[in-house]
Amino acid sequence: MIPTFALRRYVCRLTLFTRANCGLCDNAKQVLSNVWDRRPFEYDEIDVMAPSQQKWKDLYEFDTPVVHVDKVEENMTTEVSTTAKARKLMHRFKEDEVQKLMDDALMHSPSSSSSSS
């Protein structure tokens, strides 16, 4: 689910925070898959219960699923690149809500707002 490098500056990165045996997380994955069919994005998935994810466990242990939406910047690394301040949806969300958040991330990114100053 990763677009070519040429498309990177026009897409979003969605990071899904999930955990095993989570029915809401399974539904969220299906919603994101349906969005992907219409609109490509970069995708990362983080199991908040993994030992290496203590930061995210502390934040989302009782709130999964959570999806972060970030605009992919040209200087972003291929590593997970999101923060707790990212645009987000929690628990139950629909395809149109994800797409609206993607639009918002692209329209109101730091790079686009600084160019209008």
UniProtKB/TrEMBL annotation:
The keyword Electron transport applies. Keywords: Electron transport, Transport. Pfam families: Glrx-like. Gene3D superfamilies: Glutaredoxin. Belongs to the glutaredoxin family. This is Glutaredoxin-like protein.
